[in-house]
Amino acid sequence: MHNLLLSLTLLLTLTLSGCGYNTLQSTDEQIRAGWSEVLNQYQRRADLVPNLVNVVKGFAAQEKDVLLGVTNARSKVGSIQATPELINDPEALAKFQSAQGELSSALSRLLVVAENYPQLKSDANFRELQAQLEGTENRITVARNRYIKAVQEYNVVVRSFPSNLTAMVFGYQVKPGFAVENEKEISSAPKVDFSTPSPAK
User: Fold this and answer.
1) What is the CATH number of domain 22-186?
2) Domain ranges of the chain
3) Cβ(48)–Cβ(137) under 8 Å?
4) Span 168-189, average pLDDT
5) CA 122, CA 193: separation in Å to the nearest integer?
Protein backbone atom coordinates (compact mmCIF):
# COMPACT_ATOMS: atom_id res chain seq x y z
CA MET A 1 0.00 0.00 0.00
CA HIS A 2 2.81 2.35 0.95
CA ASN A 3 4.64 1.55 -2.30
CA LEU A 4 1.46 2.22 -4.28
CA LEU A 5 1.01 5.66 -2.68
CA LEU A 6 4.66 6.45 -3.31
CA SER A 7 4.32 5.44 -6.94
CA LEU A 8 1.17 7.53 -7.39
CA THR A 9 2.86 10.54 -5.78
CA LEU A 10 5.87 10.16 -8.06
CA LEU A 11 3.64 9.80 -11.10
CA LEU A 12 1.63 12.86 -10.12
CA THR A 13 4.81 14.88 -9.59
CA LEU A 14 6.18 13.91 -12.98
CA THR A 15 2.84 14.67 -14.61
CA LEU A 16 2.56 18.11 -13.03
CA SER A 17 6.13 19.07 -13.87
CA GLY A 18 5.59 18.02 -17.48
CA CYS A 19 2.32 19.84 -18.02
CA GLY A 20 3.30 23.34 -17.00
CA TYR A 21 2.32 23.41 -13.33
CA ASN A 22 5.75 24.52 -12.15
CA THR A 23 5.95 27.11 -14.92
CA LEU A 24 2.57 28.48 -13.90
CA GLN A 25 3.81 28.77 -10.33
CA SER A 26 7.04 30.54 -11.24
CA THR A 27 5.49 32.95 -13.75
CA ASP A 28 2.71 33.81 -11.30
CA GLU A 29 5.35 34.62 -8.67
CA GLN A 30 7.20 36.80 -11.18
CA ILE A 31 3.99 38.74 -11.75
CA ARG A 32 3.47 39.27 -8.01
CA ALA A 33 7.05 40.45 -7.56
CA GLY A 34 6.81 42.71 -10.61
CA TRP A 35 3.54 44.23 -9.44
CA SER A 36 4.98 44.91 -6.00
CA GLU A 37 7.85 46.83 -7.57
CA VAL A 38 5.47 48.83 -9.78
CA LEU A 39 3.50 49.85 -6.68
CA ASN A 40 6.69 50.76 -4.80
CA GLN A 41 7.78 53.13 -7.54
CA TYR A 42 4.33 54.69 -7.91
CA GLN A 43 4.26 55.24 -4.16
CA ARG A 44 7.69 56.83 -4.31
CA ARG A 45 6.35 59.28 -6.87
CA ALA A 46 3.22 60.03 -4.85
CA ASP A 47 5.39 60.78 -1.81
CA LEU A 48 7.27 63.44 -3.78
CA VAL A 49 4.12 65.31 -4.80
CA PRO A 50 3.32 67.26 -1.59
CA ASN A 51 6.85 68.68 -1.33
CA LEU A 52 6.92 69.51 -5.02
CA VAL A 53 3.57 71.29 -4.83
CA ASN A 54 4.64 73.27 -1.76
CA VAL A 55 7.87 74.43 -3.39
CA VAL A 56 6.07 75.52 -6.56
CA LYS A 57 3.37 77.22 -4.50
CA GLY A 58 6.05 79.32 -2.82
CA PHE A 59 7.08 80.84 -6.15
CA ALA A 60 3.94 80.51 -8.28
CA ALA A 61 0.92 80.58 -5.98
CA GLN A 62 -1.14 82.09 -8.80
CA GLU A 63 -0.98 78.79 -10.71
CA LYS A 64 -3.88 77.50 -8.64
CA ASP A 65 -5.45 75.34 -11.35
CA VAL A 66 -2.22 73.47 -12.05
CA LEU A 67 -1.41 73.00 -8.36
CA LEU A 68 -4.95 71.83 -7.63
CA GLY A 69 -4.80 69.46 -10.59
CA VAL A 70 -1.71 67.74 -9.19
CA THR A 71 -3.16 67.56 -5.68
CA ASN A 72 -6.46 66.12 -6.91
CA ALA A 73 -4.71 63.59 -9.16
CA ARG A 74 -2.57 62.40 -6.23
CA SER A 75 -5.68 62.13 -4.06
CA LYS A 76 -7.41 60.02 -6.72
CA VAL A 77 -4.40 57.70 -6.90
CA GLY A 78 -4.41 57.36 -3.11
CA SER A 79 -8.11 56.48 -3.03
CA ILE A 80 -7.57 53.30 -5.06
CA GLN A 81 -6.79 50.20 -3.01
CA ALA A 82 -3.92 48.65 -4.94
CA THR A 83 -4.25 45.15 -3.51
CA PRO A 84 -2.62 42.07 -5.08
CA GLU A 85 -6.09 41.02 -6.29
CA LEU A 86 -6.31 44.18 -8.42
CA ILE A 87 -4.11 42.61 -11.11
CA ASN A 88 -6.78 39.95 -11.68
CA ASP A 89 -9.60 42.49 -12.16
CA PRO A 90 -9.43 44.17 -15.60
CA GLU A 91 -11.86 46.95 -14.63
CA ALA A 92 -10.08 47.78 -11.38
CA LEU A 93 -6.68 47.67 -13.08
CA ALA A 94 -7.93 50.03 -15.80
CA LYS A 95 -9.07 52.52 -13.14
CA PHE A 96 -5.69 52.28 -11.43
CA GLN A 97 -3.88 52.87 -14.72
CA SER A 98 -6.12 55.81 -15.57
CA ALA A 99 -5.50 57.45 -12.18
CA GLN A 100 -1.74 57.02 -12.53
CA GLY A 101 -1.90 58.43 -16.04
CA GLU A 102 -3.76 61.50 -14.78
CA LEU A 103 -1.10 62.08 -12.13
CA SER A 104 1.65 61.74 -14.74
CA SER A 105 -0.07 64.33 -16.95
CA ALA A 106 -0.68 66.70 -14.03
CA LEU A 107 2.97 66.52 -12.98
CA SER A 108 4.10 67.16 -16.55
CA ARG A 109 1.91 70.29 -16.70
CA LEU A 110 3.34 71.46 -13.37
CA LEU A 111 6.93 71.16 -14.59
CA VAL A 112 6.09 72.94 -17.84
CA VAL A 113 4.54 75.82 -15.87
CA ALA A 114 7.71 76.01 -13.77
CA GLU A 115 9.55 77.11 -16.91
CA ASN A 116 7.81 80.48 -16.58
CA TYR A 117 9.38 81.16 -13.17
CA PRO A 118 13.16 81.64 -13.34
CA GLN A 119 13.54 81.94 -9.56
CA LEU A 120 11.66 78.66 -9.08
CA LYS A 121 13.81 76.94 -11.72
CA SER A 122 16.96 78.00 -9.94
CA ASP A 123 15.71 77.01 -6.47
CA ALA A 124 17.82 74.17 -5.03
CA ASN A 125 14.85 72.38 -3.47
CA PHE A 126 12.90 72.43 -6.71
CA ARG A 127 15.85 71.21 -8.72
CA GLU A 128 16.40 68.32 -6.30
CA LEU A 129 12.73 67.34 -6.31
CA GLN A 130 12.59 67.54 -10.10
CA ALA A 131 15.64 65.28 -10.36
CA GLN A 132 14.09 62.79 -7.92
CA LEU A 133 10.83 62.85 -9.87
CA GLU A 134 12.61 62.25 -13.18
CA GLY A 135 14.55 59.34 -11.69
CA THR A 136 11.37 57.88 -10.23
CA GLU A 137 9.55 58.14 -13.55
CA ASN A 138 12.40 56.22 -15.16
CA ARG A 139 12.16 53.52 -12.47
CA ILE A 140 8.40 53.36 -12.99
CA THR A 141 8.94 52.72 -16.70
CA VAL A 142 11.47 49.95 -16.01
CA ALA A 143 9.27 48.29 -13.35
CA ARG A 144 6.17 48.53 -15.50
CA ASN A 145 7.94 47.02 -18.51
CA ARG A 146 9.16 44.10 -16.39
CA TYR A 147 5.65 43.55 -15.11
CA ILE A 148 4.21 43.65 -18.64
CA LYS A 149 6.77 41.05 -19.76
CA ALA A 150 5.97 38.81 -16.77
CA VAL A 151 2.24 38.95 -17.58
CA GLN A 152 2.90 38.14 -21.22
CA GLU A 153 5.00 35.10 -20.30
CA TYR A 154 2.38 33.90 -17.83
CA ASN A 155 -0.48 34.36 -20.31
CA VAL A 156 1.40 32.35 -22.95
CA VAL A 157 1.66 29.45 -20.48
CA VAL A 158 -2.03 29.72 -19.56
CA ARG A 159 -3.09 29.64 -23.22
CA SER A 160 -0.64 27.03 -24.51
CA PHE A 161 -1.24 23.27 -24.69
CA PRO A 162 -0.88 21.23 -22.54
CA SER A 163 -0.30 23.78 -19.77
CA ASN A 164 -3.70 25.33 -20.53
CA LEU A 165 -5.31 22.12 -19.23
CA THR A 166 -3.33 22.39 -16.01
CA ALA A 167 -4.30 26.07 -15.74
CA MET A 168 -7.99 25.14 -16.03
CA VAL A 169 -7.71 22.41 -13.40
CA PHE A 170 -5.99 24.69 -10.87
CA GLY A 171 -7.96 27.84 -11.68
CA TYR A 172 -5.22 29.88 -13.34
CA GLN A 173 -6.69 32.46 -15.69
CA VAL A 174 -5.32 34.97 -18.19
CA LYS A 175 -4.37 38.23 -16.48
CA PRO A 176 -5.12 41.65 -17.96
CA GLY A 177 -2.22 43.51 -19.49
CA PHE A 178 -0.89 46.84 -18.29
CA ALA A 179 -1.20 49.45 -21.02
CA VAL A 180 -1.12 53.23 -20.73
CA GLU A 181 -2.50 55.68 -23.25
CA ASN A 182 0.00 58.21 -24.59
CA GLU A 183 2.80 56.06 -23.21
CA LYS A 184 5.62 58.12 -24.74
CA GLU A 185 4.23 61.39 -23.42
CA ILE A 186 3.75 60.30 -19.80
CA SER A 187 6.38 57.61 -19.27
CA SER A 188 8.97 60.10 -18.08
CA ALA A 189 9.09 63.54 -16.57
CA PRO A 190 9.88 66.36 -18.98
CA LYS A 191 13.59 67.07 -19.35
CA VAL A 192 14.06 70.50 -17.82
CA ASP A 193 17.45 72.17 -18.22
CA PHE A 194 18.40 74.14 -15.14
CA SER A 195 22.03 74.73 -16.10
CA THR A 196 21.46 78.25 -17.38
CA PRO A 197 18.50 79.80 -15.54
CA SER A 198 17.04 82.89 -17.13
CA PRO A 199 17.63 86.18 -15.36
CA ALA A 200 14.86 87.31 -13.04
CA LYS A 201 12.54 89.83 -14.58
Assistant:
1) 1.20.1440.20
2) 22-186
3) no
4) 67
5) 10
